[in-house]
Design goal:
- Strands 3, 4, 6, 7 and 8 form a five-stranded antiparallel sheet that branches.
- It is flat, with a radius of gyration of 59 Å.
- 3% of the residues lie in helices and 53% in strands.
- By secondary structure, the protein is mostly beta strands.
- The relative contact order is 0.04.
- It is built from one helix and 62 strands.
- Residues 1-24 form the signal peptide.
- InterPro entries: FN3_dom, FN3_sf, Ig-like_fold.
- It comes from Moschus moschiferus (Siberian musk deer).
- It holds the Pfam family fn3.
- Keywords: Signal.
Length: 733
């Protein structure tokens, strides 16, 4: 019984310990104590406190009446944001741990700083900037500072209780940075506000005006103004207002009026505004052309020219020009001039007014005509087979010329005020009776004018065909309806010009270079002139042959044929022909390999050049003898202690041979006498391995190197005896 009681008490004690441990783990963290709370920005308060053991975060609370704003932070210091400016808040802090949150700390009061003033800036003049803002809650004063945006120069700072401030004595056209903030009754500054403002530019200086009397325009220039983005030039008169704008230091005003006085001024502007306009510069344009010009011939032979007076005209010049180019003038400050005149002339009269700006614009040009005369020097100029151009000297008093060309019942006419006429739609190779009549409103048409005959140029021939004969001559045939015409055929190409002539309907062109393209035309010629060329017909000559042909034996059964490239050739066909057969290749290169060649056979080599259009030229024929066949049955025999005989079976046909033995102790050669199929090499060392090749020798003396090679071992037995042992064959690469 006592043991059971002891056991019960032990269990009970253990349970109490566990309950105590559980209770201790759920205890909330300690209450933090706020060290200080302050505001540096108008919408936030920063709080500092001592850290609480076991706290993982903190809850900051800012209370303003019924408004509560909370923020959770990790540690001290912490900041509550989203607050109102210039407002007193009750600040508390709670510590937070996994067990929960503590009670709120004793509250601490803190007030947010003043809000930043909202600035409105402008530049009322080129040397001042006006800064304005709305009143800030709880503010009793403001500080405003200004400096150049590039950091140069001094800083101006002003304190004021007003809501506007003007900075003066600034540089024109310069960008400034303005900074402002408010302070409260304690002198605590609030948030600041910053903005940039440029002063308006200064007035442009050194105005220069240049007037163009011919184009009625004025070019205005000035010295560039600091900070100016744009310039505006104004030209004011009693009746008009003209302007031009530019970003440069010069501008041109167009469409000025003659006889007008303008006041010209220049102003500069930028994003801040415009400068004051410069002092006006006076510009007087040229006078307008005189009007109401009156012309009289009284008595005959005397012309009187009168006109009206114009504004700004200092004096006048009247020009009288006859239709033969002779011109006279008079200079007067009055409004009338008198000139001598002759019958049969047309006079052109113009009057100009002058002042210091120059000559007035050209006004109306008047003409006065006396009785006309017939043209006496009619000069027909043949232009083509269907047109005739006729020119003559101007005649006195002619206002209109009527030209007629008559061919039987057909009449072609043209009327013109100029002393020239072009008669078109005429028939080629035809005779026309041509008459030129002069006409004026006063005297009418002069019907006593004489006529003359002219024949138009021949008709253009039509090329019918172009052919080539067996002698490489080009025959050109055409069709034409001309009488007694001489025809010239021209072939024009990159390699020159070739011609032939004939009075018939064909001619022959010779000597045309190969590999060329020509355009062939035909022209007819008579004493009346030349026809227009016929339509051109293209002509292509056969491609040029190669300048040289080379045949090289590559192996016993393969040769390489090469040649130089010929003009106009695109591809080549090479043919190797013998009584045993034919080998052919077609290539765009300048060489070709031909196989299946029989050794010791005579061949004929032919090369044909082919152009891009398929024209061919049989170019080269050359005899070629293939090399002699390589010998068979090459064997070596000992001749005494230091001699070797090389024996072989000669191939068909007669050939000379050469034998080479290559060993480590030297190279040995021998050549047989004519007609023999062996040769001897004396004094050859034994105990060595030799590579033996017997090859035919070409007629040129060139030794062919493509025959097979055999390897023999020459052994030594005793001092004088030995054996020749065949070791194998090695092919030639």
């Amino acid at each position: 019984m006592a043991g059971a009681l002891v056991k019960f008490l032990s269990v009970l004690g253990f349970s109490l310990i566990c309950l105590k441990m559980v209770a201790s783990t759920k205890t909330a963290p300690e209450i933090p104590t706020i060290d200080q709370a302050y505001s540096k920005i108008s919408n936030s308060i920063t709080v500092e406190w001592a850290a609480v053991p076991g706290a993982t975060s903190y809850l900051l609370t800012a209370k303003d009446g019924n408004t509560v704003i909370e923020t959770t932070v990790a540690n001290s210091p912490g900041t509550v944001t989203g607050l109102k400016a210039a407002t007193l808040y009750q600040i508390t802090v709670r510590s937070i741990s996994p067990a929960g949150r503590s009670q709120a700390s004793p509250p601490k009061q803190a007030k947010t700083v003043l809000a930043a003033p909202i600035l409105q800036v402008s530049s009322p003049s080129s040397d001042s900037i006006l800064v304005q803002w709305e009143a800030v809650h709880m503010a009793i004063g403001f500080s405003v500072s200004i400096m150049q945006a590039n950091g140069l120069g001094r800083i101006w700072k002003e304190n004021t209780t007003n809501t506007s401030l003007t900075f003066t004595s600034l540089d024109a056209g310069t960008l400034y940075t303005i900074k402002a903030y408010a302070w409260n009754a304690n002198g605590t500054p609030g948030d600041d506000s910053t903005c940039n403002q440029r002063t308006s530019p200064g007035t442009p200086a050194n105005i220069q005006v240049s007037f163009d009397s011919g184009a009625l325009k004025a070019s205005v220039s000035w010295a560039p103004t600091e900070g100016a983005f744009n310039y505006t030039v104004m030209a004011l008169s009693d009746s008009s207002r003209l302007s031009c704008s530019t970003t440069f230091s010069s501008c041109t005003i167009y469409s000025l009026q003659c006889g007008t006085k303008y006041l010209i001024s220049v102003s500069a502007s930028n994003d801040a505004g415009s400068s004051r306009s410069t002092s006006a510069v006076t510009l007087k344009t040229v006078a307008c052309a005189p009007g109401r010009v009156a012309i009289q011939e009284d008595p005959p032979g005397h012309l009187s020219v009168a006109w009206s007076n114009v504004d700004l005209g200092d004096y006048y010049v009247a020009f009288v020009k006859s239709d033969d180019g002779l011109e006279v003038h008079c200079n007067t400050s009055l409004t009338q001039c008198n000139f001598l005149s002759e019958c049969g002339f047309t006079y052109f009269i113009s009057v100009f007014a002058y002042n210091k700006a120059g000559q007035s614009p050209l006004g109306d040009v008047f003409n006065y005509t006396t009785a006309p005369c017939c043209p006496s020097d009619i000069n027909p100029v043949l232009v083509s087979s269907d047109r005739v151009e006729i020119v003559w000297s101007p005649v006195r008093g002619a206002e209109l010329y009527e030209t007629k060309a008559v061919d039987g019942f057909n009449v072609v006419e043209c009327n013109d005020t100029a002393p020239a006429c072009t008669l078109s739609a005429l028939e080629c190779d035809t005779k026309y009776n041509i008459t030129v009549y002069s006409f004026s409103e006063v005297r009418g048409s002069n019907t006593s004018c004489t006529s003359q005959f002219i024949t138009t140029a021949p008709c253009s021939p039509e090329i019918k065909n172009i052919s080539k004969d067996d002698f490489s001559m080009i025959n050109v045939r055409w069709r034409s309806t001309n009488d007694e015409a001489t025809y010239t055929v021209t072939a024009q190409g990159e390699k020159g010009l070739h011609q032939c002539s004939s009075t018939g309907e064909s001619c022959t062109l010779g000597g045309l270079p190969c590999g060329s393209v020509f355009f062939v035309t035909a022209v007819a010629e008579t004493p009346a002139g030349r026809s227009l060329p016929s339509y051109s017909v293209p002509l292509e000559t056969a491609p040029c042959c190669s300048a040289s042909l080379t045949v090289t034996q590559v192996t016993q059964s393969v040769i390489n044929v090469s040649w130089t490239v010929g003009t106009g050739a695109l591809t080549y066909v090479t043919v190797l022909q013998s009584h045993t057969g034919q080998s052919k290749c077609h290539t765009h290169q300048n060489h070709c390999l031909l196989g299946c060649i029989t050794c010791g056979i005579n061949y004929t080599v032919a090369v044909k050049a082919v152009s891009a259009t398929g024209l061919t030229a049989d170019c080269a024929y050359q005899s070629y003898s293939s090399s002699a066949c390589c010998p068979l049955g090459v064997k070596l025999y000992r001749l005494g202690p230091n001699g070797i005989r090389i024996h072989w079976q000669a191939s068909r046909g007669s050939a000379n041979y050469s034998t080479d033995l290559h060993g480590s102790k030297g190279i040995f050669t021998c050549a047989p006498s004519a007609g023999l199929s062996f040769c001897d090499v004396t004094e050859i060392p034994c105990g060595d391995v030799y590579t033996v090749m017997v090859s035919p020798v070409a007629e040129t003396g060139l030794k062919l190197t493509f025959c097979p090679k055999k390897i023999y071992s020459v052994t030594c037995s005793g001092s004088t005896l030995g054996m020749v042992i065949y070791r194998g064959k090695r092919n030639v690469e």
